[in-house]
Write a structure and sequence with these properties.
This protein has about 325 residues and is α/β, with parallel strands linked by helices. The protein has 2 domains: about 30-105 and about 210-315, Periplasmic binding protein-like II (D-Maltodextrin-Binding Protein, domain 2, 3-Layer(aba) Sandwich), CATH 3.40.190.10; about 110-200, D-Maltodextrin-Binding Protein, domain 2. It has 15 helices and 10 strands. The chain has helices at about 5-15, 40-50, 50-55, 65-75, 85-95, 140-150, 170-175, 185-195, 215-220, 225-245, 245-255, 260-265, 280-295, 305, 310-315; strands at about 30-35, 60-65, 80-85, 100-105, 110-115, 130-135, 160-165, 180-185, 195-200, 210-215. The strands form 2 sheets. The chain has a 5-stranded mixed β-sheet with strand order 2-1-3-10-4, with helices on both faces. Helix 6 links the parallel strand 6 and strand 7. Helix 5 packs across helix 6 (about 140-150). The N and C termini lie far apart (about 65 Å). Mean pLDDT is about 90; it is low at about 5-25 and about 320-324.
Length: about 325
């Protein structure tokens, strides 16, 4: 063997025995808290249709059944992005000044409803006085319910309001443990399937009860590009909902326990659009003022500080087509 060939052979053997360089460590997935509610259709569709992956994004979805739980998850750092209703969001940004609202992904003034047993003698809101009313405190439903009572001149202290998880409300009502409950879809429709009756909805107060997406300011600084891709995935989901409502109802029914038919009806009580428009801002101000009057927050949050529209502004038009 010539000296040159020997040298080359020894060099190749040296390379073979070198320790392998570690592969580039993949970015940690974005931990996303969302809800099994009809109002969270954009989130549910984005997860189920793998739209996050189509945007080259790793997302770990964590499913909750109320906004207060999502708010606690992002507050404690258990998740990076969370969805919740207006009341939970306003309580969260008042509690944690580093939280930012980056979008509303749904709304609907009639998406919260008060349900009573079919044979109940309760026929009006005044009939709720002294009765056991289930509601998940700290949620958008809770804030809307208190606002409705105030608008009708009813003191909430005259009701026996019980802090209750929405998942057990229909069975509690059917068993007679509650006289009524207030919740957002799908809980009212699930109760109707078990013999419940709608007493009222929370509409007519000039509030669209927006559902919101929150992140911490630190995440915006560290993972800005991923958040842009996150929003593009949600835009795909929004377009899917409007193009394929029947398929959307079928997918939502798997998460909510409603039939596809009842899911479709519940969807009609909602609007699904990524935005932070004037109506949404006015609704947030209205809810914040009410929460302050109720001593739930110390001051009305300065929306210009807690809201950022940079991800909506750079979202651009939705993709021209979606593969089924």
């Amino acid at each position: 063997m010539t000296p040159l060939r020997l040298t080359v052979t020894m060099f190749l053997l040296f390379l073979v025995h070198l320790p392998m360089a570690p592969a580039a460590v993949a970015a940690e997935p974005l931990r996303f808290a969302y809800q099994n509610r009809i109002g969270d259709a954009v989130s549910i569709i984005a997860v189920n249709r793998d739209f996050f992956a189509e945007e080259g994004l790793q997302v770990k979805g964590l499913l909750f059944n109320n906004g207060a739980a999502c708010a606690e998850a992002i507050f404690t750092g258990a998740v990076d992005v969370a969805t919740m209703g207006d009341t939970a969001a306003l309580l969260a940004v008042s509690r944690e000044p580093t939280l930012r609202i980056i979008a509303s992904h749904g709304a609907g003034e009639k998406r919260h409803r008060i349900i009573v047993p079919q044979a109940s003698p309760i026929r009006s809101l005044n009939d709720l006085k002294g009765k056991r009313i289930g509601v998940k405190k700290g949620t958008s439903t809770h804030g809307g319910f208190l606002a409705l009572l105030a608008a009708k001149g009813i003191n909430s202290l005259e009701l026996r309001i019980i802090d209750l998880d929405p998942a057990i409300m229909p069975d509690a009502l059917a068993a007679g443990s509650l006289d009524a409950f207030v919740a957002s879809e799908p809980t009212p429709s699930l109760a109707e399937q078990k013999g419940g009756r709608e007493l009222a909805d929370l509409g007519g107060l000039g509030n669209n009860y927006p559902l919101l997406i929150l992140v911490k300011n630190s995440l915006m600084n560290k993972r800005d590009e991923e958040l842009h891709r996150f929003m593009r995935a949600l835009a795909r989901a929004e377009q899917f909902i409007h193009r394929y409502p029947e398929e959307t109802a079928r997918l939502l029914s798997k998460e909510t326990g409603l039939s596809p038919e009842m899911t479709g009806k519940a969807m009609q009580r909602h609007s699904y659009r990524l935005q932070l428009d004037g109506v949404t801002a006015a609704s947030l101000v209205q809810t914040a003022k009410f929460l302050k009057e109720e001593n739930k927050i110390n001051r009305v949050p300065e929306l210009s500080r807690v809201i950022t529209t940079q991800y909506l502004q750079q979202l651009g038009p939705p993709p021209p087509s979606l593969a089924r």
